[in-house]
Structure formats: structure tokens, C-alpha cells
Amino acid sequence: MNARRRRISGIAVTAATALGLGTLTACSSDGSGAGNTDKFDVVASFYPMQYLAEQIGGDHVNVTTLTEPGQEPHDLELSAKQTAQMGEADAVLYLKSLQPAVDEAIGQSDVKTKIDAASLTKLEDHGNVEHDHGGEEHADEHAEEEHSEGGEHALDPHVWLDPVKYAEIARGVAESFEKADPDHADDYRKNAEALAKKLSGLDTAFKNGLAKTDSKVFFTNHAAFGYLAERYGLTQEAINGLDPESEPSPARIKELQEEAKADGVTTVFYETLVSDKTAKTLAKDAGLKTDVLDPLEGITDKSEGEDYVGVMESNLKALETALGAK
Length: 326
Fold this sequence. Notes:
By secondary structure, this protein is of the alpha/beta class.
């Protein structure tokens, strides 16, 4: 994500509040907004958090999400109603640093329980994934931005794509639910254990499926798969860094073409929520195939699966094919 695009100031939130724009997306069985039900009302920032809340909460929670299905979550701007109803919820579940507007609104909110998924596991810097590979001009620009931010690289927020780390987050979320809603603590614990088994099974499938492959290198549209690559001994090469909409430089394209030959890369992956134009252009020029590798930032009709586990299973099949799994 381009640093300038990442910095969504409080002006947008304040303006939306003043104008009273927008509505809160409800993704619950009864369609009720946060704070208006007899259940434990949870506001989730985007799909991976929504999935955790629904799986762990079960029948005891009413879950609403701030990011609509199909909406690219990084640049989310909140409406007045979303900001107001967040304060009426019993809990908000989010991933700090992924959505600046959400971070700011939560910081100003008096919601009873604030659960930051980023604090429940260890985030890492995957080779400065926040910055794209777009040549000297971009490099100078990013160097200036890093200097102004204290010289520190941003940590990679895409932690949900590693089933092991996602399970760590799930345990922390369950503990927070148990503490905030003790009447249903036993059920939250049981649901969390069931989810942990699903994620453990997914981890085992990835380990076994990717243990022996012709290549360990895969190309993606943007750098969302650092944790997954690290977990299963793979190397991610991103065309655009974290910003799926930016255009790579000719030098970067040439570099990727040469690497494809050297490392036996067969496939350029793109995703469902952004344009596949750059990935397909690179693939055509380099004589490579294209396929979908879904960063699971939202579930839509185009998703290769109905939920987190289903899409991750599709991602595994795509990687097995692209990498030449034995």
C-alpha cells in the first residue's frame, strides 16, 4: 500500500460524521446493527476478523463488518453511522495498521472491548513489503517517507494467511470474548477449540502439499503472502509491493522475467478484488500462466470458496499446480 494512500487522516472520518453519510454493513443472521440486539454485539473491521468472531461467537454473537464484501479494505473510509454504532457495540475486533481509518476511529471510540489481532501474535517485516519495487524514483520517495516515519519499516499485516498465526489470534479473541461475556465463556472456549482443529488441519494440508515441489518461488500481484511463504518454505515475489493498483517499472518487469527463467516459475498469480491487467501482461511477455491466489481480504461471488477454509484450500491447490507439487 502506497504510504501516501495509507495515511487516511481524521478529516475523512470527521467529514463523514458531520455529513451523516453511509450505513453500517450487517453480516449477521438477523441483519441487526451493532448495539441493537440482545446478543454480544461485535464489530469486525474486515472479513478475516469477521470470520473469527462468527466461528468463536457462534449463536451468542451478532457480528457486523465495516468492510463490505468486494471492497478493498486498505483504503476504507468510515461513515458517520459506522463510527457511531461502533461505540454502541460490546466489542470491536480489528487488525491494527491495516486500515488507518479504522485505527483512528477505534482510538476515539469508547467501545467496551477493543481487540487488536496484531497484538495477539508476532508481526514481522518481510523485506519491507510495504514498499513496491518501482525503480529509483519510487525508492527515493520511499526513503524520504521512511526517514519522516523514524526510519522504521512497517510490519506486514497479512498475518491471517498463515493458519498457525491465525490460530494464535483466534485463541486470543476467544479469551477476550470469555472475559467480556462470561455467561457464555464455555461455548466460546469450545468453539475456539473446534476452529483450532480446522486451522491445524489446514496447516497440515499445506505442509504436506508443498513439501516437495519443482520450484519454491511464486509471483503475486501484491505482497500479501509473506507469512504463508515463510511458514511453508516458499519465496514470494510481488509485482507491486503492498499496493495492488500501482504499476511496476519496466526494470522490475524485466527482473521478474529473468527470475522466472532462473527459478522455474510457471505462473503469475492475481487476485479477485483488484485488476488482473499487470499480472496478465507480465505473464504474456514472459510466457507464463496466470491463476488466482486469494489474499482473503473479502469473500465475494468470485471467491474460490465459501469461507476462509474453503478459499485457503483453493489457494493450496493453485500453489501445488504452479509449483509442481510431487
